[in-house]
Amino acid sequence: MTLTESTPVRTARVDDCASAPRAHPRPDGAARYTISEVAAFTGLSAHTLRWYERIGLMPHVDRSHTGQRRFSNKDLDWLAFVGKLRLTGMPVADMVRYAELIRVGEETFEERQELLERTRRDVHRRIAELQDTVAVLDHKISFYAGARKASERV
Amino acid sequence: MTLTESTPVRTARVDDCASAPRAHPRPDGAARYTISEVAAFTGLSAHTLRWYERIGLMPHVDRSHTGQRRFSNKDLDWLAFVGKLRLTGMPVADMVRYAELIRVGEETFEERQELLERTRRDVHRRIAELQDTVAVLDHKISFYAGARKASERV
DNA sequence: CGCTTGCTTGGAGTGCGCTCCAAGGATCTA
DNA sequence: TAGATCCTTGGAGCGCACTCCAAGCAAGCG
């Protein structure tokens, strides 16, 4: 694997929205990553990256003169954001919708904002559910812990 | 639909572990619910309830003299707990494993506790991820909010 | 030059968690 | 008693998000 050695310099700005926090090695400027490098950075498989492009979840990736994909820092930023959305359980179709809105342009700012606000509400709800679940788990775990201690004492 | 009117009385004790917090209407004592009543209570489909039983996720449900399922309060408690586990994203296979441990008996207390503790760790991790994601969403949303305000002022 | 490794494509396959179907028996309401 | 509604089963089907395959082109190395 020939990873262009990373000199992480911040060039920032994902699409037209402020940059996401950086999570990956990020060589500077005109960095052009192969698909396997991006796979290593993101943890996604090359298959999945191609599939994302096919379904319209990637804003058209640049190509080398021989037709191979060359991903940019912008692409990595976008993938990092998609990774976050994936964690929320958002369906891929909704992410594709968001990607389409970006392709259309600035007149979709309002709709994009609404989409993200809906997502944020969903995430808050998920967090509450999970905290609820933790309470149940705590309860059961302490039951087992107590029962086992008691049996030791027999 | 003929729901036996709910007189929620606490008969408690899910399997051999302390009862989970009650989430459903719960008539008292020897209540025997049909599959569609349980579907209404839990939000699961009758199909799913039968499927749960087939794969071993339900401790054998009682039957009427003609062979129809009659669910007990204990069954509802168990389904409520399964619902919590489902929210954590735990694979059904792992829940089946837990159900099997319960069937075996008290000598599996330790393994059950470990399983639940692993699950709790996973849930805490998920919560942290989601909180991270909320931060990113906040960031992007305020970008859009700011951009739209700015364009109004033009 | 041959070899290996990596990339390309369209399309088929996989695993999970349901979801539904067909055919027949049970139960309820008038 | 008729008719509607609910329940039973095994097995097939579905939607999602990948995941892999085959066949072929391209680049680097001894």
Your description of this structure?
Chain A has 154 residues and is mainly alpha-helical. The first copy, chain A, folds into two domains: 1-90, Orthogonal Bundle (Multidrug-efflux Transporter Regulator, Chain: A, Domain 2); 105-154. Chain A contains five helices and two strands. Chain A has helices spanning 35-42, 46-54, 73-87, 92-104, 109-153, and strands at 62-63, 69-70. Chain A has a two-stranded antiparallel sheet with strand order 1-2. In chain A, a hairpin with a 5-residue loop joins strand 1 (62-63) and strand 2. Chain A is elongated, with a radius of gyration of 21 Å. The relative contact order of chain A is 0.10. Mean pLDDT of chain A is 83; it is low at 1-24. Chain B binds a DNA duplex (30 and 30 nucleotides) through residues 2, 34-36, 45-48, 50-51, 54, 64, 66-69, 91-93. Chains A, B: It comes from Streptomyces scopuliridis RB72. Chains A, B: This is MerR family transcriptional regulator. Chains A, B: Pfam families: MerR_1 (PF13411). Chains A, B: Residues 32-101 form the HTH merR-type domain. Chains A, B: InterPro entries: DNA-bd_dom_put_sf (IPR009061), MerR-type_HTH_dom (IPR000551), MerR_fam (IPR047057).
